[in-house]
Amino acid sequence: MKTGGCLCGAVRYELSQDPKDFRACHCTMCRKVSGYYWAAFHVPAGALRLTETRGLSWFRSSASAERGFCKDCGSALFYRPTGSQDYEVAPGSVDGEVGAKLIGHIFVADKGDYYDIADGLPQRND
């Protein structure tokens, strides 16, 4: 079982399933949330258990999604489509080794002009 959480510890979770490989999203909203680009791995409903929630807050970032973050330290942790119980979890929030890797990039047409994508991984515009 893997554990994770925010920088200050006001949000903590346990994963009953190992993280899967993930993609980086370069859309404007993800860049605004993270300050760069956002990457996350999918966790199906029931495979993530929140063990500390005193700092957890949710922000409705669009009609189709909300984002979970720590209101105390500002750590961006989760992305969740509206109506879904599944999570997309930031790999950097996992304690220790993640055991998954970046396999590609999405929404690259929206990427910032302040960085290049030069890792040779697949790139999509959706």
List keywords for this structure.
3-stranded antiparallel sheet, single chain, mainly beta, Metal Binding Protein, Guanine Nucleotide Exchange Factor, Chain A, 7-stranded mixed sheet
Explain how this protein is built.
The structure is a single chain. The chain has a seven-stranded mixed beta sheet with strand order 6-7-8-9-4-3-10. Strands 1-2-5 form a three-stranded antiparallel beta sheet, with no helix packed on it. Helices cover 6% and strands 40% of the residues. It is mostly beta strands and 126 residues long. A hairpin with a 6-residue loop joins strand 1 (2-5) and strand 2. The N and C termini lie far apart (32 Å). It has a single domain (2-110), classed as Metal Binding Protein, Guanine Nucleotide Exchange Factor, Chain A, CATH 2.170.150.70. The model has no long low-confidence stretch (mean pLDDT 96). It contains one helix and ten strands. It has one helix at residues 28-34, and strands spanning 2-5, 12-15, 22-25, 38-43, 48-52, 56-62, 65-70, 76-81, 87-89, 102-106. The radius of gyration is 14 Å and the shape is globular.
CATH class label: Mainly Beta
The total count of helices amounts to: 1
Mean pLDDT: 96
Euclidean distance between termini CA atoms: 32 Å
Strand order, sheet with most strands: 6-7-8-9-4-3-10
- The percentage of residues in β strands lies in 35-45%
Tally of separate domains: 1
General shape? globular
Report the oligomer: single chain
Class of secondary structure makeup: mainly beta
* CA gyration radius, whole angstroms: 14 Å
CATH architecture: Beta Complex
Number of DSSP strand runs = 10
| Order of secondary-structure elements | EEEHEEEEEEE
CATH topology: Metal Binding Protein, Guanine Nucleotide Exchange Factor, Chain A
Low-confidence stretches: none
Helix proportion:
under 10%
Largest sheet geometry:
7 strands, mixed
